Amino acid sequence: MSKANAKVLIIGSGPAGYTAAIYAARAGLKPILFTGGQPGGQLTTTNDVENFPGYPDGINGPQMMIDLQKQAERFGTLVNFGLVTSVDFSSYPLKVTVDEKTEMTAESVIIATGASAKYLGIPSEEKFANKGVSACAVCDGYFYRGKEVAVVGAGDSAAEESTYLSKLVSKVHLIVRREEMRASKIMQQRVLNTPNIEVHWNTETDEVLGDDSGVTGVRVVNNKTGEKKVIPIQGFFLAIGHKPNTDIFRGNLEMDDAGYLKVVPGTTKTNVEGVFAVGDVADKTYRQAITAAGSGCMGALDAEKFLAVKEHALVTH
Ligand code: NDP
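# NDP complex -> structure
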């Protein structure tokens, strides 16, 4: 059996990955972490994080990720700026390929590759990213208190985010591309019964408008009549779903229909021994930095226990 390069190999560098690293490093497991293509993860696309406990004045998202990296490194985590491009969990030790060339083996793997919010893919949306365009109402809604915003989408996320925002902002324009919503009936009712949410049916986003100060409006088009109009808004929220970053695990790990990794409830254990999934890659419900960090801690404790049991078995046989 080839000797493993890593006792604990962590894939991903959001709050889940770094928290797993802090715990594994403090347990003396010398974790090796690969950051992935977006070091720091989704929080690096947010300005102020005000809901992470312990920061009474809030913290800048990218700064928080730098701090988490430093904390992980302080205890001996080896942080590598590499992208894991394939894995082979069909035999033990577990195999991981980095940047399509470096092959490594690991005694345990903690997957913290997260999920990516879906965007419409229009240039103006990208131009105003972080300047009025957001894919997280819970993260950024507070900055639009008393202002008008738009939400795009028609699923449970769009319904939930519109309702959440309606309590903060003066008016929510919900942009729905069909003449009905996909969201559950109860959540739709909540939207329709909220006086300051206006639903724009059969409506698609043509362009996000703005200037140096950020977003000032959105031009929409009615896909039945072709009629265009401008809605003055300051915040433009995407709620058209997330995609878990699990493509490289297809065929290796069990996942649900949407591609989220399946774990044994109440744990971070996947269907392969020694492989653990933490954070948004296995969570389509909560998706918060604090819940990701919490599950990162669980993943490190699960990995530590797995390694201890394996070592004990080797000693006693
Ligand atoms: P969904 O995939 O359920 O819905 C995405 C929505 O976005 C659809 O209504 C879709 O429209 C719309 N959409 C997709 N692409 C575009 C586009 N290019 N332009 C305009 N609209 C677009 O994603 P959600 O994030 O809403 O939900 C994901 C999962 O999480 C679901 O299972 C949901 O039930 C669950 N969830 C549960 C919550 C709860 O129970 N509290 C809260 C949030 C999510 P169309 O309908 O026309 O396809």
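# post-check
Helices lie at 15-26, 61-74, 123-127, 137-140, 156-166, 185-192, 289-316.
Residues 3-116+242-316 form a domain with the FAD/NAD(P)-binding domain fold (CATH 3.50.50.60).
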